Amino acid sequence: MRSVSQPGPPVPERIQWVEARGRAFSFTLQAGLPLLQAARRVFAAQGFAGGALRMTSGALGPFAYVMPALSKTGENAAFYSDTFRPAGITRLKRGAMTLGSRDGAPFFHCHALWTEADGRINGGHILPEETEVAEPFEVEAFGIDGAMFTAEPDPETNFKLFGPVPAATSDAKTTGRAFALRLRPNQDFAGSLEAFCRQRGIFRARLHGGVGSTIGARFTDGRSVVPFATELAVLSGVISPGSAGTLEAELDVALVDYLGGLAEGRLMRGDNPVLMTMELVLEVLGEGTR
Predict the structure, then answer these.
(1) Are residues 131 and 196 in the same domain?
(2) Rounded CA gap, 11 and 156, in Å?
(3) What pLDDT, on the 0 to 100 scale, is given for residue 290?
(4) How far is CA 182 from the centre of its chain?
(5) Disulfide: which of 39, 127, 168, 280 matches 210 by Cβ 3.0-4.6 Å?
């Protein structure tokens, strides 16, 4: 399996996780607000400090983003491009967001594909400080209680990255068990989730959100993405027993690579290692002896 050397030593715990409880809900983002504020306001009204979102449409403007890029200094395995600020209204096609905190304030990590006002289709990492909701649009969300995604320095990648940490519980209404996860570099995306569930007696689970990067990509239909640096959003994800009875993760994703190539599809199990990080919420749907 492919791997990329990181600037720092790997930590023994390859999956950072916190058990929590959570609930799925949908809501409409209010126009005229910064995207971060619009999302945070509704989560707070539901009693949650953070969680995950998934978007299948939307209008943003002003809008700012960066793309994956090669590192110019060698201090990171890959880096970000300069900031792009397309004029007019940008129309989201697909995207995922992790809502948490950075430096004691609300923050998000969001990857998406979109169409810009001039018709150009692009993708990348949306900047919360410079992006506003231009028109109301609906999103699907999953709030977590008892855990929070917090941006902290990560010596392995030399980035400040979201990872789950324990948080005080609130009075938020929840419907079931969930795990806030961060997968560390150079482990297969699907295989890591399958092993995590198997070790805990979970035989059915659903992914919410899903923001991160893989080392290129290999899809089940035979297509591949060769450029190694990507930014990826999970479109849907389930873990359940396959035809042989063993757990299998079905992960549908959208991504952009550092050369500007776009791709969507189902990831092949066993051949899609994480580049920098993969953060998501895992909702438990079935556990115990089948």
Answers:
(1) no
(2) 7
(3) 46
(4) 9
(5) 280
Whether residues 216 and 266 fall in one domain: yes
Which residues of the chain fall short of a pLDDT of 70? 289-290
Q: What is the pLDDT of residue 288?
A: 82
Residue 290 burial by Cβ neighbours in a 10 Å radius (0-12, 13-18, 19+): exposed
pLDDT score for 289:
56
| Residue type for position 236 | S
Domain end residue (candidates: 124, 144, 164): 144
Phi, psi (deg, nearest 5) at residue 231: -130, 130
| pLDDT for the residue numbered 167 | 97
Residues 26 and 114 in one domain: yes
Residue 218 located in a structural domain: yes
Among 88, 122, 144, the domain boundary falls at 144
Instruction: List, in order, residues 6 or more apart from 180 with CB less than 8 Å away.
Output: 17, 18, 20, 144, 147, 148, 149, 164, 279, 281
Within a domain: residue 169?
no
Residues with Cβ within 8 Å of residue 189, at least 6 apart in sequence: 183, 214, 249, 251, 267, 272, 273, 274, 278
CA separation for the pair 40, 50 (Å, rounded):
8
Whether 7 is covered by a domain: the verdict is: no
Residue 95's domain comprises 21-144
Q: Does residue 151 form part of some domain?
A: no
* Structural tokens at position 9: 């030593």
- pLDDT tens digits for range 130-174: 999 999 999 999 999 999 999 999 999 999 999 999 999 999 999
User: What was the pLDDT predicted at 211?
Assistant: 98
